[in-house]
Design goal:
Layout lengths: L2 H15 L19 E2 L3 H4 L4 H25 L9 E5 L6 E2 L2 E2 L5 E4 L4 E5 H11 L1 H20 L6 H22 L3 E2 L3 H12 L16 H14 L7
Parallel strand pairs: 1-7, 2-6
Antiparallel strand pairs: 3-4, 5-6
Helix pairs in contact: 1-4, 3-5, 3-6, 4-5, 5-6, 6-8, 7-8
Length: about 240
């Protein structure tokens, strides 16, 4: 696999994962003595198989829900998980508030409180990039669902997206520290490569509608959350 192919797939992730009000997950748990791994590298972890893809999608949603359930519990609040996760294969097969969800996308839809993802897009990214990035993608999208539950609104899109990156980092970092997830060799590098690839083009103004932040901003936000937990995310 060449770097050009990787960057092309990550560009698709940028176009898909950050459009709309982002969100993603799915889930069933892994055995307690074998926590799900945010793992990269197709030869090491079997990411070429459909079964591995399904396990990682399920593990990402389950671990995100477990994390946010615990956070809400510690705050004395009741946690409500997203209603469902819907895979789709064709544009227009799923709609959010009357607007068709396009191909090559993964979104959180507040209208209906569900997550939808293009299964063909997700599998291609999974095979060519690795499953650690799936955990980031789902974590970022689930963060948007949490923002909706907390009533968090930002005047600028970039602030909303960078906070979601930070929250995704906190979920992954805290889950690893607590033993709910394991990190395999190369996973942190995969997170970083993915974040560098999904940053806005330098020509996009920070105040533009739909701006998500430069590669440097997104990387900084994610790893601030990863290292310092939610205290770094202005929650």
């Amino acid at each position: 696999m060449t770097r050009t192919v990787v960057m092309r797939v990550l560009a698709l992730l940028a176009a898909g994962a950050v459009a709309l009000a982002c969100g993603l997950g799915d889930g069933a748990g892994s055995p307690e003595d074998n926590p799900p791994a945010a793992s990269g590298g197709t030869e090491e972890d079997g990411t070429m198989t459909a079964a591995e893809f399904k396990r990682d999608i399920e593990g990402a949603k389950t671990s995100a829900e477990a994390y946010w359930s615990d956070v809400f519990k510690q705050s004395g609040e009741r946690f409500r998980p997203i209603r469902e996760v819907v895979p789709y294969a064709r544009e227009g097969e799923v709609d959010c508030g009357g607007e068709a969800v396009p191909r090559n996308n993964a979104v959180y839809c507040p209208d209906g409180d569900f997550i939808a993802y293009d299964v063909n897009f997700a599998v291609a990214a999974f095979q060519q990039v690795g499953d650690a990035f799936l955990y980031y993608l789902l974590g970022h999208e689930y963060a948007h669902a949490i923002q909706a539950r907390l009533g968090i609104e930002h005047r600028l899109t970039i602030d909303h997206e960078l906070q979601a990156d930070c929250m995704a980092g906190a979920y992954l970092g805290d889950s690893v520290k607590a033993g709910g997830l394991t990190i395999d060799k190369g996973d942190l590098d995969e997170f970083q490569r993915g974040l560098l690839a999904v940053g806005d083009d330098p020509s996009v103004p920070w105040f533009a509608p739909g701006a998500h932040g430069t590669a440097e901003q997104r990387t900084e936000s994610f790893f601030l959350g990863y290292e310092k937990s939610l205290a770094a995310c202005d929650l």
